[in-house]
Amino acid sequence: MKRIFAYLLPVLALTAVLSAPIPAAAQAGDTQAEPATESPPESASEPAKPSLSALLTRLGDASFDEKAAIVDEIAASGDPQAVPLLRALSGGNLYVRASDGLAAVSKGEEGSETYTSLTGDPVEAEGLEKVRVNNMLRRKVTAAVSRLGLLSPKADVRLTSARAAFLEHDEEMLPLVEEALAKETDSGVKTALQQVRAAIALTSSGVTDDAVVAAIDVIKDRGDEDARNLIKPFTESENAKIKAAAVRAANAINTSLGYWAAAQNAWYGLSLGSVLLLAAVGLAITMGVMGVINMAHGEMVMLGAYTTYVVQDVMHSIAPALDTVSLVVAVPMAFLVAGLAGVAIERSIIRFLYGRPLETLLATWGLSLVLQQTVRTIFGPTNKTVISPSWMSGAFEIGHLTVTYNRLWIIIFSLAVLGLMMALLRYTRFGLQTRAVTQNRRMAAAMGIRTDLVDAMTFGFGSGIAGIAGVALSQLDNVSPNLGQSYIIDSFMVVVFGGVGNLWGTLVGSMTLGIANKFLEPYAGAVLGKIFVLVFIILFIQRRPRGLFALKGRALEG
Amino acid sequence: MSPEPIGGVETSAILYLDGVTVSFDGFKALNALSLVIEPGEMRAIIGPNGAGKTTMMDVITGKTRPQHGQVQFAGKHDLTQLDEAMIANLGIGRKFQKPTVFENHTVEDNLYIALKEDRTVFSVLFAKRSPAQAKRLDELLEITRLGPHRDILAAKLSHGQKQWLEIGMLLAQDPQILLVDEPVAGMTDAETAETARLLREINKTRTVIVVEHDMTFVRDLGVKVTVLHEGSVLAEGSLDHVSADNRVIEVYLGR
Amino acid sequence: MTPAVRTALFGGASIWLLGLIAALAVIVPAMNLLMPPDSAFHLSAFAVTLIGKYLCYALLALSVDLIWGYCGILSLCHGAFFGLGGYAMGMYLMREIGDRGVYGNPDLPDFMVFLNWKELPWYWYGFDNFGFAMLMAVVAPGLLALVFGALAFRSRVTGVYFSIITQALTFALMLAFFRNDMGFGGNNGMTDFKDILGFSVQSDGTRCAIFVITAIMLAAGFLVCRAVVHSKLGKILISIRDAESRTRFVGYRVEHYKLFVWVLSACIAGVAGALYVPQVGIINPSEFEPANSIEAVIAVAVGGRGTLVGGIIGGVLVNAVKTFFTGTLPDFWLFALGAMFILVTLFLPKGVIGLFKKTGGIGVKLPGLGKLASGAAKEAKP
User: Where are the domains of chain A?
Assistant: First the structure.
């Protein structure tokens, strides 16, 4: 049990963090200072100042000095579009139409650019003219943007700006940073600003040794790659005091980065583990509880994925507004489709082969070929794309850990499915009957349980769970006729490793294999890592032929 | 954890079990079981279901490893360190409760496979049937009264015939001890009496341990009886002696 | 029916089979080499190679039958042993190319030059010697089987558990051989072979010679297997298949017997692979695909497991059907194969050969095989 909690805790911690409000700034990443969602696009500018478009009409053919003046005016305009506009300008991506002052940002390769307005709407290339910049202007723009950002009334904007300023650590910004620091009330932003000041101190000339040491200590606390790069030169310093501080700081950062890298690997591992769990948990029912080796289990997953595709397609053509919930609709549909397929398979093939697992293995392998080819015939051999709804795309960061929403949802989903299944087996009449039949078939029959019905239902249930796994996999992988094949061997490994007939074993098995895979990858590469894991399992089964969570007892010895 | 080193006990016993404990997930199938069998003895083991009779057989034949205790054979072999095949080759033969013969082999081949001979892979690969072996096979077929059926598949024998074939296979192994688990289950009265006769015959040259439920049969054998209960010895002595024991009556006979 | 009679009966069947193989070994090359190309009796080089391939698959199926039909061990990795034998032959053929490759490098095969390898890896040493390469075609799969089998059988991994880890084994090998830095040609494997022992692999004469050798090896493999299954050891194998634990109590070290027949079977599969490669002219990691191993198993099931003749018939039959479907109805091949798996296991447990035999002889009562082999899965029920 302890081991299981060791696996569950990080997941619980993550869900707890998620439910707490996350600063919007954290989502935008720390290199961009773009307050993208700040305000509606067409908000009116104040009448006292010249409107943005009026300023822009003049920008096209102004001299560099005139442009500098216009930049100041734009910065002072207070217009929410000022920041993206200025960024585009310093990046050399800004185009204006002299006729009406329309500004456009270019994207793409030179010669095949596309243009969008500052709000992201597409714009015709007609009449657009590039605004030329020089270095003087660029510095000016940078300073103006920093100023707008660091003195913004919104704390999250200030924070992202401070982070951007840290990377630039331009000596000329020092007065601005000091000014912002003096006004700052938010502790998080304050720390960030202090780090900016320290970074500037490290890179400017004429700073006292003590100040450098103090700066190194401040920057150390960031604990990231950028901080390490800033400190690195000082580890070679001739001043012993500075060198000692720098080496200490660099080591501390390395350690902390190592932990974060491990955490990231663990996260990827959990994510892979949850996918394996979804794929294997149905198998744990059919193989673990019923003792049926279903090589077509992967195809049940594949059927679930195709059901997701069909549901999405149909819903899109009937009610495009409901696109975002098609995935939710797909879950019960996939369960039904795969579950019914499972019942049909059990009734038509597997029931004749009970007690003959090797024959079952062969027959279901044949079945998997038939199912794959059927799907290939109907849907074609090419991959189908299932679109991720908005609530599943994107990512957020916890410290230096990037967490994508789709993987997070799948982890939660897989645990929910496992929990539901355990509850169903433990507390419902169906679960009771299933356990009765698998423990003592004849006794169960004698007590009036329709054993053949229970067999069919149990198999259908396991297959239905596989179908649900297919819904989740459609979010991570290509939906193709071979989808199931790529997971079946791993799923078997999970069940065998975890110990047949034990759902906790399946959970621990899948998470262990997922994490082991991801921890091996950086050292051995994806393929070799997988080989290591397979070899490990092969050796493990030699040591403990009944798996990790083997049920000990007389019945096993038979 | 590990059993004490062999030779710690000087004994004349052919089979010596001391403090043997086997537990499955907390359930103690054998609880500090001690049992001493002298050479040439025939012993009947009785006890209610779950008393640990079959587990005891499993421990002696190497199928189950005890968590504690010693199991010695002929005073020099520590059976807890050996696997089933090694123990069988030392001279401990076992007959299962449910007759298990090789159904896809003929009666004669079943005996031939069991015949005592070098069992390393390559000597078996190049084995030839010697005249001495052929003679021994004839003898065994005679003893088990299966001569007329020697060329039919063992699968086609009746239940009683299979029991006899299995006993024949045991004899073919030429063991020093025979462990016989419920030899007369499912037999007719005549077959039962005949089996008792056969076991007494065998006991002239070998040690025999019989696990049995059938009290008439145990009485027929007329040997020392050990009563097992909850994994330990409850009583030991003649059948009349143990039948008079109040605890035995309570847990077993009196029900 | 006495054992003597049964042996004679099987002897009769095997005489027929050996006669058929001998006839093929004479008639096929004769029809290719002696008949003029426009004759109705002329057999194209393609057809010779095709029949030769069938014989290789038959040898592979024979090896699977030995281990599955007689010892109850369902191997899902015989394709890997086949592939290893094939790679040993492929390595020899690559070395034979010498400096006639695209890059003209006398020391390194083309793919190594392409990957900027500077020198031949140590495990390629000796493969320019035909005798050594052929030895490795047997030793490499045999060694893998020995190590894997020793571990698995000692730990008493049985039934479907064993099958599943054999599948993982061949899967791991497939992934490994797909890697370029393994030094076996990666994804593309080895191809563009020029000659074997100085004879062009393309010429009709060489093709026919390889065909004859394949036929001889098939006959030899059959006789070896037959000698094994008719020895006392063969009886022990069947005992293990039907009642493993009982066999232990009779005093046989079951793991040793399994290991012996497992390694023997792997070596035979390796020979089949080595013969296969010069005929098809290519070896690549797809030989390690789990599906290939399972196809060999189903060939045995179709032919009739537990009879050596059945294994050979199945190997030829399934692959002939495959040729037919992939040639005429490629989309239906997988349907046909899948249906074959299902129908044979459900309705034809003794295979095609079971249709012709009233009493099953050695192969009688096959359901018992499954019951016993069920091992872990059933027992593990809570």
Answer: 2-150, 282-543
